Amino acid sequence: MTMTDLAQRLQSGERRALARAITLVESARADHRAQATELLAALGTGKQALRIGLSGTPGVGKSTFIEAFGLMLTAQGLRVAVLAVDPSSARSGGSILGDKTRMERLSRDPNAFIRPSPSQTQLGGVARRTREAVALCEAAGFDVVLIETVGVGQSETVVAEMSDLFVLLLAPAGGDELQGVKRGIMEIADLILVNKADGDLKAQATRTCADYAGALRLMRKRPEDPNGFPKAIAVSALETQGLDAAWDDMQTLVKWRRDNGIWDQRRRDQARFWFHEEVRVQLLARLRDDPAMRARLEAAEADVAAGRALSSVAAAAVVDPAFSSKT
Asked: 80 to each of 111, 134, 143, 319, how far by Cα in Å?
């Protein structure tokens, strides 16, 4: 199959073509990377789906929330794609990729598409090619793309560079009120959802929501937010309570940002960010592929490992051979 054929099938909404295309862009093989570049060029810029990044600590109920939220959106006639990133083992490199099992009902919905991917060695909570997978989902005609991060804590910030809205999911009774004023992930959240506001935890979830709402008022107001945002809401994915209100708030925020030119500026800034990131990655790959450069890298690596050179000095000498003569 040519990349032109694959692009046409993907744009017609064929799910198998989308799955095959994502597999292609995630591959590290040189021939697959060339084909992926050809495919993305053939697709061009498609429709602009609403990209929602979602993060939260393990056990907070991200998969349960995504399934309930996704089913609510598909019931409204929207097409929803879920890109879930699973942590990879530092020892074996393997991942469980069990999100389809967790989202059994959503995976059977004809208006939904779920794709789990391994994080591999990528930091920041997303896989290296998640942004390209988002572009493929947009080309396939999806209206909403949900990007679920690995979910390990304060470092889950890279997803904000590929999403229009960043939603932070929290559990009730997760710590003292000082947790709410921590910098990092709290500063980039557009909406904080305190999940599990049901049963015995409902009262605690309400208190936790109030704590975070108070913490948000202490933070410096961002120019990309209207009055009242970011905000904290108590929801129950299990009982599907509060999901409509959360969706309404998301749409309100998106409309305000579109009307004030912030949406387009954010997309441009994100494109610049990923351009520089891709240049950095390709430059490093070229360094490794060049025999002479690889020999210099290995020699410098041996010096660093033996304690004969500092890593910063050795790296500077590899990039600029004249540096070593100066020192």
From this structure: 6, 12, 6, 45
Cα dihedral 289, 295, 299, 302 in deg (nearest 10): 50
SS3 of residue 143 by DSSP = coil
Residue 162 near residue 197, CB atoms below 8 Å: no
7 and 42 Cβ atoms separated by less than 8 Å:
yes
Q: How confident is the model at residue 145 (pLDDT cuts 50, 70, 90)?
A: very high
Q: Could you give the CA distance from residue 253 to residue 272 in angstroms, rounded to a whole number?
A: 23
For 147, which DSSP code? Answer: E
Q: How far is CA 146 from CA 62, 90, 249, in A?
A: 11, 26, 16
**One-letter amino acid of 210:** A
Q: Full-prediction pTM beyond 0.70?
A: yes
Q: Write out the two tokens for 50.
A: 């609403």
Q: What average pLDDT does range 152-168 have in this prediction? A: 77
